[in-house]
Model the fold of this input.
Amino acid sequence: MRRSIVRVVAMVVLGQVAVFSQVEPDQDASVSANMAVSYELTHIVNSSYARAGDVTNDNWLDNYFLQTISSYMIVEAKVREKLRMHVKFLGALMFTLPDEASPNGSPVKYVFGNMRGAYLSYAFGEAANPAADLTIGYFPFNYSPETRALGAYLFKSGTYPGYVMSGDGEARLAGIHLATRLPEIIYHDLFFTTEIDIWPVYDMSLSYLARYGVGEVLEINAGAMFYRLLRTYQGYRAYRQTFIGDVVLSDNLEKVAFVEDGDTTWYSKSGVKLMGRACLDINKIVKSSRLGENDLKLYAEAAVLGVKNYTGYYEDIFERIPLMVGFNVPTFGLLDVLAVEGEYYGSPYKNDADPRGAPVPYESHEYEYMLFNEEVIVDSDDPYKTLTDVRAGAGQKAKDDNFRWALWAEKTIKDRFTISAKVASDHLRVLRSDGEYDSHERLFSPTEWYWQLRLFASIF
Amino acid sequence: MARITLQAIGNRLVCAAGALMLSGLCARAATDVEFTPRLRVSYNLLQMVNTISSLPNPDDPASASDKTLMHRAFVHNVSGEFGIDGTLHERIRMYVGFRAQIGHSFLYPAYNIDALGTQAKRITAGLTESKGTFIFGDVDQAPFVLTAGYFDLKYNPDAQDLGEYLLSSGCYPGYVFSGGPEMHGVRTTKLAGLWLDADVFEKFRQDLVASVEIFVIPNYDISISYLFETDIREIVTLGGGVSFHRLISANENNTTPASAELPDPDDTTKTIKYTHRGVKLMGRIALDPKPLFSTDIFGERDLRLYAEAAVLGVKNYPIYYENISERIPVMVGFNLPTFKLLDVLAVEGEWYGSTLNNNPYSDVNSPYPVGQEKRAWGSVDDFKWAVSARRTLMEHIAVTARVACDHLRLYDGTAGFEMRERTIYPYEYAWSILLEAYF
Done:
């Protein structure tokens, strides 16, 4: 009976949503709303991620299940066809990893509300074919729609240390985006964004992206990002305060500077990222009606996460170049997408965004030590020991984690229901209690993997 | 195989009928009911300059190895709001607004002086307003309008940043706020309760408010307030009001805590019972000389001179509240003429001679009607100032810029603001730009 009442209430609510899903309260304005729900089930099959505070416990994530039930509400307003406002809300119930410091090993339930977009866009010139488009706020941007798990490096990465994120190609940016096409076949995108996710926050970055042949047989993208070009005073002070103190030198000197033969090299979190990408749509050459729209796409992307070398931690530029290749296997309409992706990223360091905002790697793979309160723990009977030089403690894992792979399948039914499945050894990160991704990735070799099933339904 | 019982079938039929009935009612109601969606996105950029006085541990200023914790610190906030404005009947309206905000908290980790650049991203969501409105009397004249719920109330339309003392300030201690929902937004007050707006007499408006305290603990005390406003030939506006603050306690032990009972220094056989309860008074005036000029070159808000003063507790108490003049904030503002280039360019100043910290809570983060004596800065924080400019574009976009040494309080990582103000000395200030798009 209770479930029936819930159904009735849901029907009434949806009915009311339908009432205002298309409304024109002003003569020159319109508002549209959409709602969607999704269910995601993740099964971590094999992971050697060691539990915090107990590095010998490196199989606690094996056969671990995670679940997330999400609802989305998207509201868009258009004023005179040139001004658009967009807000996207997200509410979710999830079962995610427990606090690693607690003895609890079971998934923990969290409920959170989040915002996935709040921005306004203005079209210069004719609304139907604008000369330029200006977007301000918190907005999604995806230059790599083919990406399913690996790639999209320009915005989903950091420098010094260089980390990369996995997931689809959509990045969420805060700031300003100016887009234009000149000539018609080349897209130009200019971004001035502020860092709101990774410490230290509020540093400003300037980015430029050129895209040739979007939607054509051959698409080529090239981009540059002056990451953290403008450093906020608080950002600059963040790691200097922690590691340097009031004077230039401190006990933690090796964390922010490399001293050799009397020479001191100071690291900086700012850097220049470069990106190159190509996508060949063989389907458009073959032009077979049997093939699905996404079949036979071959795409590749590479990036440089910091062009400048630094003595000590960042001496080899090739250790800062992630490369990925992807291919959409033809399914002849059975599936919308069946993608296979692979990545090589030869960084010897953990692929984590440093929680302190420092410009040096946070901790090594093979040797770990507790950094909370800067205490060092040594136990001769314990398999781990302290390490001050993260590079020396890279170990075998630093090589094993260079290769990543992912397999993705997706099918949309009746334009509203989408089922997707993924099997991958990528840069898996789990959600925190606030709905944002934890900085630690959980997989460290091609034999560590998970599978994920996602059901998505939009109401309108 | 599950058994299908008659009861189960009956339940489903009843529920289906109910759904059809409700849908039908909604469909019929839809012809009488209007729903208007509202949408707003905003981006707020703020930087603090010279803000060195607001230390993480003001009880021990020497403990702060670096007193420039907040100097030149930036704060970015982006928010999205969605609301439904419903007209259910010619007399009944409702509005529900929902807002999500991305910001960062300087308090996380709590008062960690080394964590300035490492403040955690906080995404919060909550209501902006949730209210119902009923019109009594002639619908077009609306002589009486009753609002119930959670709503914004702005009785001083001129106040951009400072002022609006009557409803948002406290008693014992008498704390004041500035700004609005955004850190440097337009001055307004959020209330929960009932609000009767009476516009019966020409050019004499009255408001009766019964509000429930939901922001500053002790929560749920009820205050009763009366305000009035009168207009003289559109040149002079006079307003005033009285608020019986925390007249009705949810828990008298919290409103008048036993821990705030101190010996009377003049008579040791007696004690002083400090309480948060008190009577506040407010008076304001606005002068607009534009009707005297036969010209339309001025903007609607140009040349307005306005002032407001309040008494935050009429009764004196020994020791901490002996001098009523120390409980009287006064503000003055003037809208510089911009000749329609801007909607408003307001310069405001405030003097508030309190000898106590302008924080609702003591440093142990508990409400305490006993005053918290100021630190080394003494009376230098008595004077505040603000310069605000606003421009509306295309009817749906507004840009507000502000430079101010006001009662700035930062986003605390939840859906509200911290209780400690951040700009103390007159040379400590923050500038901000607020970009809003609304529909």
Residues 50-61+72-406 of chain A form one domain. Confidence is low (pLDDT under 50) at residues 1-25, 241-255, 368-386 of chain A.
